[in-house]
Structure formats: C-alpha cells, structure tokens
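During the reporting period the student researcher (J.K.) took over the structure-prediction task from the postdoctoral fellow and processed the backlog of single-chain submissions. One of the processed entries is reproduced below for the supervisory committee.
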Amino acid sequence: MHKEESTLDLGTIKIHKNVIASIASLAALEIEGVRKIGKNFKMGLWEMVGRRSYSSVKVMFEKNDEVCVELPLVIRYNFNVPEVANKVQENVRNALEKMTNLTVRNINVAVQGIEKDEAASRQS
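J.K. obtained the following structure tokens:
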C-alpha cells in the first residue's frame, strides 16, 4: 500500500496528486515575495482555449513512498530570489507533512520570472 493511501477501520483514504499540488500552491502563495505560481506549456494552452487546467505543480511518488514536488514560481520584483525560494520550500514541506502525513523528499522550485505588483506598476 502506498503512503498516499491509508487503511483505517472504516475503509481506505486516498489523497489525489491534485490535492497535494493544491496544498503546495497555497503554501507557496503564503510566502511574502511570491507573485504567483508559474505555468507550464500545457497549462498555458488550456488557458488560451478558455479552460482551467490543473495546477502546473508536478507531484511524483517515489518507490519508497516519498513525495517529490516541482513548483514553478514567479517572484515579486525587489525580493531576494534564493531567500524566497528557500522559504517556499520550508512552508510547502511543513504544510504537506502536517496536512497529509506524507514524507516529502524534494521540493524543487523553478523560478520562471520576476514581476512587479500590478498596483506598483500603475504608479510608475
């Protein structure tokens, strides 16, 4: 049995990869300096045709029941990129372990860009 599913007296509980991706996304967005979750090519295509796709966060389960997360981010302008990325990794790990009881092996952050806040852009 994989760790993302557990059996209790009443039955089996399975945690879908999309739930793990959602938790990772929300935890990343809690960090000051994160502008938004980045996009992958597939997500961009779905948005162009007017459909919402699943998060661009990639979740993989390893053989030893550990979870790996790949998280594309856009960082706010004027923030220290490595510092923000490290805080994201810590917050995502804590959220996933607390909410799912999964063992997190890796949280790989791919910084895809830097953007100013929209309000700040209008004032310039």
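The committee noted the following: The longest strand covers residues 103-115.
J.K. will present the remaining backlog at the next meeting.
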